[in-house]
Every structure is written in C-alpha cells, then in structure tokens.
Amino acid sequence: MTVSLGREQFHGLGSMYCRGAAAVILTYDVNHRQSLLELEDRFLGLTETANKDCLFAIVGNKVDLAMERAPDGGKKEGEASGKAGGSCVSSRVPRQVQPEDAMALYKKILKYKMLDEGEMPAAERMCFETSAKTGHNVDLLFETLFDLVVPMIARQRAEEPSQIVDIASCKTPKRTRSGCCT
Ligand SMILES: Nc1nc2c(ncn2[C@@H]2O[C@H](COP(=O)(O)OP(=O)(O)OP(=O)(O)O)[C@@H](O)[C@H]2O)c(=O)[nH]1
Asked: Strand 93-94 and strand 66-67: pairing?
C-alpha cells in the first residue's frame, strides 16, 4: 500500500492509513517553507505504523507557481522550476523550498527511521518536484515508486511462510480403539 499524507482534517486517520504501508509520499508546497517543516513536525510521527523498510518519497508540489531566482538574485519572470510546462503563466511566487532542502529532509527521515542510507534509494531518486495542475513529474513519481515497491512486495511474499494449506497432504487422523464407534 502507498500512502500520501495531506490535509489537516485527515491527521487523525494518518497512522491508521499508514499501517503496513510499503511506501509513503510526503507532500509539501515548494512555495511554502512551513509545509516542508510540517512534514517533519507533524506527519513523520504518523508513519510509525508503516512497514519497517517502508520507502519514503518527498514531493514538492505546485512547482508551476514557482518563480526561479536568477543567479544575480533577480527573478526570472515566467520560468517555472523543473520545466513545469511553458503554457502555464499563472501568477508566480518566489519559491521558498529548494530541492536540496527536500533531500536533506529525506536523509533525516532515513536516520530517524534507522534505515541504512546505503540500502535505501538515493535522495536524488526519491525527491520530486511536481505540479498536480500541469501533471509535471506525476507519472515519474508513481512509476518510480511502483518500480521499487512491486519487487519489494514480491520478495517479502517469497520470504514469508506460505499461508496456503495443502488439504491433500493433510492425513486423516487414525482412529483409536478407545473411540466409542470402533
Ligand atoms: N497551481 C497549482 N495548484 C494546485 C496544485 N495542486 C493543488 N493545487 C490547488 O491547491 C488547492 C489545494 O489542493 P488540495 O488538493 O486540496 O491539496 P491540499 O493538500 O489540501 O493542499 P493545501 O490546501 O494547499 O495545503 C486547490 O485549489 C488545488 O486546485 C498544483 O500543482 N498547482
């Protein structure tokens, strides 16, 4: 199961939804620094019930609204981060979260979860910038997660003791002489 944590009114349900999750998508808004901080402060604790080797994807959404800062400190008007779609010219705001901030949080999460960084996918692979509005990187996000999660689940199933009972191999218990019908 893959879980995405979002709005405040669903906080109470978060840990329930995370139970047994193979992957958790933590989503913030690239234009609101506070939304990234909240992932750590408020949402991370809800993932306690996820699988112990659960994957984490950090997703910065609303990249279509982000206005990049030019190297001289000025603003590059009309240029969305991550090439989020040239036709989208809605009013842009200076982005407040950089990809490096998300990658730092990813590494922090691995530490917090006591997961071995060497055994988990790299931060560069698990941090995305998306636009739900233009669809930018949305397919990439889910395809990446499926590519990682499906073999993981298959491996876990193969390692688990089989839940199937072979009825044919079950022997009928011998009747004893002490039985009343013998
Ligand atoms: N421009 C833009 N708007 C978006 C994007 N994703 C969601 N929105 C808009 O943001 C608003 C909130 O979206 P929701 O889907 O309710 O998401 P949420 O997790 O509750 O997000 P917030 O209320 O923004 O914290 C809606 O008006 C959406 O249309 C995006 O990628 N780009």
From this structure: parallel
In a domain, residue 168? The reply is no
Handedness of CA 125, 126, 131, 135 (dihedral sign): positive
Residue numbers of the domain that contains 40? 2-159
Residue nearest to atom 23 of ligand 1 (CA): 7
Residue from 131, 137, 138 whose mutation best tests the ligand 1 pocket (most atoms within 8 A of CB): 131
Of 59, 75, 78, 23, the closest CA to residue 136 belongs to 59
- Cα 77 from Cα 89, distance rounded (Å): 10
- Does the CB atom of residue 107 touch ligand 1 within 6 A? no
Distance from C-alpha of 114 to C-alpha of 30, rounded to nearest angstrom: 27
Please report, for the domain that includes residue 60, its CATH number: 3.40.50.300
Q: What is the band of 68 on the pLDDT scale with cuts at 50, 70, 90?
A: low
State the sign of the Cα–Cα–Cα–Cα dihedral 161, 110, 132, 3: positive
Separation CA 32–CA 93 (nearest Å) = 10
**What's the pLDDT band for 18 if we cut at 50, 70, 90?**
confident
89 pocket-lining for ligand 1 (C-beta < 6 Å): no
Looking at the CA of residue 35, tell me the nearest atom of ligand 1: 25
> What's the confidence (pLDDT) of residue 104?
97
